[in-house]
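User: Could you go from structure to sequence for me? I need the amino acid at each position, not a summary. Structure tokens:
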């Protein structure tokens, strides 16, 4: 079965049209190629709107995640960050890596698993490092002794 696109006026197979309820044949009146062209141009014209929308979504998602996992809102997170001078509580570095989508990666919330008490904010490396040592200060002391002995 074939259909004519409203935009490019080409006769194309029905599969070339996206599904869209509300039309007699259940298909979009514009072919997928025309829809893609339109959406690409719309995105270019509205980049500022899209970026602001994405930023708001990200902040809301971050706040929801912090509240769900740690009982901590974004305001409290920012307060802890401010008290730490905006850096990792262990190494003092500012976390500035990308999370793969070009966004700034926040410092991670370090907490006591048993009680849920928040110790501070750590960069990815310090947070995973503590995890690899099972949050055990004795094991960390042994590791420090080991490192210092190998440097002498």
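Assistant: Here is the amino acid at each position, in order:
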């Amino acid at each position: 079965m074939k259909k004519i696109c409203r935009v490019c006026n080409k006769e194309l197979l029905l599969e070339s049209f996206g599904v869209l309820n509300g039309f007699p044949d259940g298909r979009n009146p514009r072919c997928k190629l025309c829809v893609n062209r339109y959406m690409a141009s719309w995105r270019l014209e509205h980049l500022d709107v899209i970026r602001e929308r994405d930023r708001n979504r990200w902040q809301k998602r971050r706040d929801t995640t912090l509240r769900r996992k740690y009982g901590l809102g974004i305001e409290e997170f920012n307060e802890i960050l401010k008290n730490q001078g905006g850096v990792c509580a262990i190494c003092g570095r500012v976390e500035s890596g990308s999370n793969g989508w070009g966004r700034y990666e926040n410092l991670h919330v370090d907490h006591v698993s048993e009680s849920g008490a928040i110790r501070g904010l750590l960069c990815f490396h310090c947070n995973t490092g503590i995890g690899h040592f099972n949050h055990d200060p004795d094991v960390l002391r042994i590791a420090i002794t080991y490192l210092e002995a190998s440097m002498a």
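One structural detail worth keeping in mind: DSSP finds five helices and six strands in the chain.
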